[in-house]
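Record 1 of the preview.
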Amino acid sequence: MTLTVIGVDGGPLAPGAEEALAAAEVVAGAARHLQRMPVPAAAEQLVLGPVELALEKLAGRPAVVLASGDPGFFGIVRLLRERGHEPLVLPARSSVQLLFARLGRSWDDVAVVSAHGRDLGPAVNVCRARGATAVLTGPGAGPAEIGAALDGWPRTLVVAEDLGGPDERVTSLPAAEAAARSWHALSVVLCLRPDGPDAAGRGWYAGGEPVPPPDGWALPDEAFEHRAGMVTKAEVRAVVLPRLAPRPGTLVWDVGAGSGSVAVECARLGAAVLAVERREDDVARVSANATAHGVEVRVVAGVAPAALAGLPPPDAVFVGGGGPEVVAAAAAAGPRRIVVALAALDRVSPTRAALTAAGYVAGGVEVAASRLAELPDGSVRLAATNPITLIWGEVQER
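->
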C-alpha cells in the first residue's frame, strides 16, 4: 500500500497530490491542513497530535500524510522512514524558501536550524555564533523566546508569520523588541548580525563557511595580538580544544581570556563564545583578535567569579585565569566540560578538588613542549616553553 506525504504551503498542490488524496482510506495531518484540503468524505481523518498513534493507523492502508512545506526538510519523512515506511513525497516550498523569496535574498550563506520540538539552546547558540541564521520555531521556542535568549548579542530578527496563509506578515526588528511581543504560532525567524554576511562571493558551500576552518586550529601564537607573550600557547590549545569540544550549537566560556586565543579558536570551530576578562587592554585585544579572524566573541569586562553571574549557561568552560573559587563558580553554571590551565603547581590539588566536589570526573596532563630554535651556525636546538598543567572535569555519562 502506498503512503504519500504531501507538502502544503498555501499554494497549489504538487502534481499527483489530489489523486493520492482521492484514493486515500486515511488522511493524517494538522487540523488546519485537513480543513483546507480536498479530503474524501469516506476517508478516516487523523489530527496529528501524538504521532505514534497515527502511524499505527497508516500501516497497510492507502494513506496520505499532510505536512507543512517540504516534509523532507526537518519534517516527518525522517520519522516515517525510521518506522519502516517508504513514502512517496510530494513536497511544497519550505517556510525557509518562502521567507527568502519574500525578502528577495539568496540564502546559501545562511545556517538553518530547527527549534521545533527540540531544545532551543543549540539553535540560539548558532544564532549567537553566526552572522545569518534561519530558525524553524515551535511552541515555547518562538520569536519571543529567541529574542530574549539573544540578550547581550546585537541581532536583528526578521520574523515571518503564517507564510502562505491568510495571516502572513514579515516584520524586522531588534531581538530585544521581539522578546516583548506575541507572535503567530506558525513563524520562521531569520537572525542577523548587523554586520553579518551577504551572499556575495559564495555559491559552493551552503550554510556559510565550512567547519572546521580550512587552515586548521591550534594556530601559531603569532596569529594573535597579545601582551608580552601572554597567550595560551599553540601546543596547549591543541590539547584544550578537543577537551572543550567546540562545535555549532554549543556555547563556550573563556574565563580569564587574556588575548582570547582559546575563545577565537572555539569560535572558528563553530561555537558561540563568551569571553570574560578583567583587564581593559586585554578586553580590546580579544575583540581585535576575533575581528582579525572573522569570528564573533562576546566579551564581558569584569572580574570572575562575580562577572559570571547571570551569563547564559555554557556547554564548556575554559578557565585561563583565577583560582579554585572561579572553577567552582564555573562548575555551578552546569557545563558538561571544564578545562583549567595552571602555571602554578600549588593550584593543581585545589582545582581538582573543586571539580570533584561539583560532581565532575577529573583528569589532567602536563603540557611541556620544546620548539625548534635556530642557532647562529644554522643548526637547531630545542627551546623549552613554560610547562602548563591542564586539569579538566567532565560530567560522567549515565
